[in-house]
Write a structure and sequence with these properties.
By secondary structure, the protein is an alpha/beta fold. The chain has a single domain, classed as Rossmann fold. Helices cover 58% and strands 14% of the residues. It has a five-stranded parallel β-sheet. Helix 1 packs across helix 9 and helix 4 runs parallel beside helix 5. The protein starts with a strand and ends with a helix. The model has no long low-confidence stretch (mean pLDDT 97). Bound molecules: adenosine-5'-diphosphate. Adenosine-5'-diphosphate binds next to helix 2 and helix 3.
Length: 191
Amino acid sequence: MLNIVLFGPPGAGKGTQSEKLIKKYNLNHLSTGDILRASIKNQTPLGLEAKIIIDKGGLVPDEMVIGLISKELDEHKDAKGFIFDGFPRTTIQAEELDKMLASKGLHINLMMALEVKHEELVKRLLNRGIQSARTDDRNVEVIEKRIKIYNNDTMVVAEFYKAQGKFRAIQGMGTIDEIFGRLCETIKEHQ
Ligand code: ADP
């Protein structure tokens, strides 16, 4: 099993790189953002609750995303491994993920953190807002709030994995293929 946390601020390229990684390594992509957006689209009670928070740029409650991830892990028992994208985003989520995995005899192998300059993040997100249906990418204030929450509340999650010797920083500037190459090199060192 190869279980990877792909980490980084909004707009760092986690979704783009996850898509390439799951193909190359035959992994399951678990993106809490994607799962929440699907719930919003299907207008489930959870989706309706999440939409209000997401549109303001906040984080949805830990219990909500932990429940979603737990369900996904149970539904994909035969997976070769997982890429966690957008999760864990708080230390509580990281602790719960470790517990959930341990109960199945599993663990995280590696956290790779994409590092991208602030101006580039805002540029990429605004561009995505024009090209996609994502309402949270249309407004600079919402984007800045998400980056601030990342810096204030999410970045500490890296310390959790550093303490376990599993953290690797990855230069997230450059072409999609250059960045993908760096991620693959890092995975190679861990296989
Ligand atoms: P991005 O990282 O580009 O902001 P995501 O698609 O990962 O986008 O997440 C979109 C939104 O969904 C976040 O701004 C947040 O409101 C919510 N969300 C996603 N994952 C989590 C999580 N693990 N914990 C809390 N909220 C989350």
